[in-house]
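ok here's the first one, seq then struct tokens
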Amino acid sequence: MTSKYSNPIIPGFSPDPSVCFHDGTFFLVNSSFHMFPGVPIYASKDLNSWTQIGNAIHRTSQLDLTKATSEKFPIGPQKILIATGGRFAATIRQHNGTFYIICTNDWGGGPNLTMRNFYVTTKDIWSGEWSDPIWFDFSGIDPSLFFDDDGKVYIQGSFRPSNLMELKCDIRQFEVEIQTGTALSETKKIWDGFAGKDDAEGPHIYKKDGWYYLLTAEAATFEHHMVAMARSLDIWGPYESYESNPVLTAYGKGDVIQNTGHGDLFQDGDGKWWIAALGIRNMDGCYPMGRETFLAPWNGRLEAGHRLSSRMETKRYDYLYIRTPNLEDYSFSSNNRVIKLVPRKTTLSSATGTTAFLGKRQRLQDCTATVTLKTSAKESTTFAGLTIWKEPIRHEEIYYDYSTSSVCFSKTNKMLSDEPVTKSHQLKLTDTIHFQIKATPKVFDLSYKVGSDDKWTKLGSMDAIEFSGYDFTGTIFGIFASSKSEEAGAEVTFEEFKIT
């Protein structure tokens, strides 16, 4: 099938991968948390070149993300977790001509989860159209589907109390009527996990040679993360832990790829087994893009790659909005070269709701995001520009403040201070201002130039390590517009939003 691939296969904010193989094509999904559209879907023929073909949550009516906030709280001595709500840990499966994506939606934020679980379906995965959610009752996260040979269907998940601080979790299962989401059995515990004292999450069941194999993600999702396996001759157990567990971990190793875990096994057309798993690329403590998707032959080794395939250009599938957007606030030219936003009072630091923002995931460690802002002579309370954004707690931007005729820099890191760091340069009126964010593995530099000037003026920077840590998401380049007073019909025009 393939022997060459570049890791990570899906770079930049692509945690919790799940893969299925159907009709000669691999399909892969990731968690998307607070971003809309949600649960991105990628396709590949060779496991190396991946193209985003849609999103499972692509209509604002499917579910509500307005309360998918981010909160910080301690998880141990000198450890602070930034927990973000939204869509957790999707699983993709295909059965009898129907594709299923099953997922958790959390809108509580912080240590207290308020969660519901659902799945969506489609007969034609290439259409980009998915059903409304089918909701089902399960007190936990990370649901998975298993279709048995006898026609029965089971849902497995990580049972957990409503408080994330109670880390002891286990894997539980029930039989489901797949058409309605109705439980056909009690929900029963089937495994405590390999460690028996840490999180048992991300379960997937596979069947081979009469055995049921249960794969789990354990020990949280950071430096101790691991993948473990157990097996049983009965789907209800008891499950016997594999004597060589964990089957995948980077803990205690000095590799660039760290925090590996939350994997999914799948076979290719030749019957060869593979695992897709999350991990980070730790560059001296810097990993702002967060958890990414890596690939290895089953029982193989996750190794760092060098590049993303250039064939990952998409339609508008890869554009991102913050939580549930007001889509009427956005307009696009036919070729997407001109994008207009209606500013709202909400800002990039707003904990809930949405703001006028349109972004794309950072896919490369070395890259440059640029955009041109068309200014106007009228007085306004609007400010608009270019940002590198991870969640309301950490972001930095360079923007034009219409009320002061100034170009401004702002850096927000609420892990360090509740007040942003700011700087501004007053400008003479000009028709166009060009903004640039230049990323390296260690720093993000923000610059501007006006009109036809050739020279960029650096206004501020943020170390990549400030975007790194115990969190769920990854960095996103985006254009945005906010206003101190929502002026009727006031649009902001951007041109040539690019990441190169």
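and now the second one, same deal
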Amino acid sequence: MGIMIKDLIESTDVISVPYKHAEAEDLTMLTKEVVEHVTLPVIDFSLLTSGSADQRSQVIEDLRNACLHWGFFMVTNHGVPESLKEELINSCMNFFDLTPEEKSVYDVENAVDPCILDPIICGTNFNPASESVSFWRDYLRVLVHPAFHSPPKPEGLSEVLSEYSKRTRDITKELLKAIMEGLELEEADIEKSLELKSGVQLFSANLYPPCPHPELAIGLPPHADHGLLTLLMQNDVGGLQIKNKGKWVAVNAIPNCIMVNTGDHMEVLSNGKYKSVLHRAVVNNKETRISLVMTIGPPTMTSVH
């Protein structure tokens, strides 16, 4: 495994980002396209699960509009304690603090291959020998359903990840039920055909350390997600940008919300009505960003993006 960014910047006094003029100019142009910070549509999960009939109907309509016009929305009052989020962030940070030898157990040379479903992999997208603009990200990726997996180190990660996986699976089930109602699809038929109970659930912890030259690097390039829905929580450092109406916009997240976006399988399920939206992660030169990503899809989902 190539040395991870976090280990590299902690083992040397100076680190530079490879420079390739043409690609760096392209990246700068992309960054300049961000014209505003936006607040995504907000879905009150408590009204969906325990509100009145009228309140639930309104939330379903809000979901329909969010999926139709944005492909992204924020879920509040979702029932995941902030303490659980913080425990998981800390546990994942402790994983990245493990020695390179301990982390190398989970290295897969072709981990960027979208057809891989190794239960646990970790790595980096940064190649210090590259002459192109670099991806500035270390990651841990774990298959948590239908069979649960977790690295044994650090202590406590397995327990908190198991709890978080169950809670996000329950949230996703309720969101999908409401989305299906908004699409006027029969819930029982769709759930049976997708076999959601045995569907694939992938967890990714993405670490974006401070970058000395953020204008020459990007955390993750523009991409769309596989699966039905992707759920994301992060620390207080922003970096998510989405493409909406042809423009890149930076997302302002409400504290302790879960950001949700529709994926490729949802686009197919909705017959193209709800698009799998392009998004990316940008880096900064001051603070470490970490994102906790849970992607949920049917058993046939093979991507680990």
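notes on #2: The chain has one domain: 5-12+23-297. The CA atoms of residues 80 and 167 lie 7 Å apart.
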